[in-house]
Amino acid sequence: MTDTLPGASTALHTDAAVWASIHREEERQEAQLELIASENHASEEVMAAMGTALTNKYAEGYPGRRYYGGCEHVDEVEDLARDRAKELFGAERANVQPHSGTQANMAAFMAVLDPGDKVLAMSLDHGGHLSHGHVKNFSGVFYDFHSYGVDRGTERLDMDQVREQALQLRPRMLIAGASAYSRPIDFAAFAAIAKEIDALFMVDMAHIAGLVAGGAHASPIPYADIVTMTTHKTLRGPRGGLILCPKDRIVRVNSALFPGGQGGPLMHVIAAKAIAFREALQPSFKDYAAQVVANAGVLADTLSESGIRIVSGGTDNHVMLVDVGSIGLSGAAAEDALHRVGITCNKNLIPFDERPPMEASGIRLGTAAITTRGLDEADMGALGAWIADVLRAPESDAVIERVRGEVAALTADKPIYSPRS
Ligand code: DSN
């Protein structure tokens, strides 16, 4: 077994069963190409912060106003995280305590809505998110969610259709943001619709947060009343959430998050968020964000040129939906075939899909993680060809064997983390 991560294997570690599984997961990540669009590889420094004594500290409340003693140093950390988040996104205020994107959304809704209020958001079936009104999620249980989708012909958002729906429904809040949408989101157009119907405008930019931070997607900050995100996708931080808002809304946001939806903040994760925000403030992060988008473009073009349909014809961000139904496969079968060669992705509904979600007609591919490990446009051309080969011959042991070898060689050549001495 190789040691890949700092701190992951030391003489202090005695729980052989758990560490063996952790090592196997480390090895899996090193040996496979991670194309799940919501994942990334956090830096060693981000991961190290999560393994510190800050995990021991209770700190309900906010810096300077805590319900526990001994918070002077975690206050410093939370202030750093908040200040860096504000600087990174040009926001007036930040709450860095959400444990996840869904927790951030729960706090955002509680801060500005009353139970039962009407909300208009993107349909999960067309690329939205569970916490934007799924019937079994808290959002769908406590609020009256309605959804807009993409246009059937273009498979893109049509802002005239969104406006028409909004004028008819008159929701209290309009939400923009998606988990599987490959085109730019026109925040100015959403904000204009919200203004026309006197609704609030919220953006959940979980997927594109790193692209916004790196200048590769327009920012919603000038337009939105409240912005939520996760910190671990394109932003490449620790798992967690973040809320940004204007200064006149922060008191309600803070109290909706704690005590509204959460108890003690995870101070070790907040330290890791602070480190990740600093990383994203470096000029090199702009290069990273641009490379993520360039890589996605080449991957989508290569697949498309091989005759596999890409939803909406391509991508402008980090993600693409590949219509594997166009070559007679289900998303589940495609996910399995790619798994056999060491390429990890997820089956995904495509807009107007006729298959059920556990089968689906698409796979969702993203380039955030593979770009972190240093893959570039030339690698994307090769990767696209391998994916096409596997999807066209998923039962061929010869093809699987060959591509598995290619993936193994590439991952060995481009390690994620430096090996420990
Ligand atoms: N599960 C995430 C994704 O894969 O997009 C969203 O929360």
State the share of residues found in helices, binned by percent.
40-55%
Ends distance? 14 Å
Give the structural class: alpha/beta
Strand order of the largest sheet: 4-10-9-8-7-5-6
Protein architecture, described:
The chain is an alpha/beta fold and 421 residues long. It folds into two domains: 228 residues, Type I PLP-dependent aspartate aminotransferase-like (Major domain) (Aspartate Aminotransferase, domain 2); 131 residues, Alpha-Beta Complex (Aspartate Aminotransferase, domain 1). The protein is built from 15 helices and 15 strands. The strands form four sheets. The chain has a seven-stranded mixed sheet with strand order 4-10-9-8-7-5-6, sandwiched between helices. Helix 2 packs antiparallel against helix 10 and helix 14 runs antiparallel to helix 15. The chain is globular, with a radius of gyration of 22 Å. The N terminus is likely disordered. The site of D-serine has 4 residues, from loops.
Annotation keywords:
421 residues; alpha/beta; Aspartate Aminotransferase, domain 2; Aspartate Aminotransferase, domain 1; four-stranded antiparallel β-sheet; binds D-serine
Summarize the structure.
This protein has 15 helices and 15 strands.
Secondary structure topology:
Blueprint: H1 16-31, E1 33-34, H2 44-50, E2 61-62, E3 65-66, H3 72-89, E4 93-95, H4 101-112, E5 118-122, H5 138-142, E6 144-148, H6 159-169, E7 173-176, H7 187-196, E8 200-204, H8 209-213, E9 226-230, E10 241-245, H9 250-261, H10 267-281, H11 283-305, E11 309-310, E12 319-323, H12 331-340, E13 343-344, E14 346-348, E15 362-366, H13 368-372, H14 377-392, H15 397-413
Parallel strand pairs: 1-13, 5-6, 5-7, 7-8, 8-9
Antiparallel strand pairs: 2-3, 4-10, 9-10, 11-12, 12-15, 14-15
Helix pairs in contact: 2-10, 3-10, 4-9, 6-7, 11-14, 14-15
The structure holds D-serine.
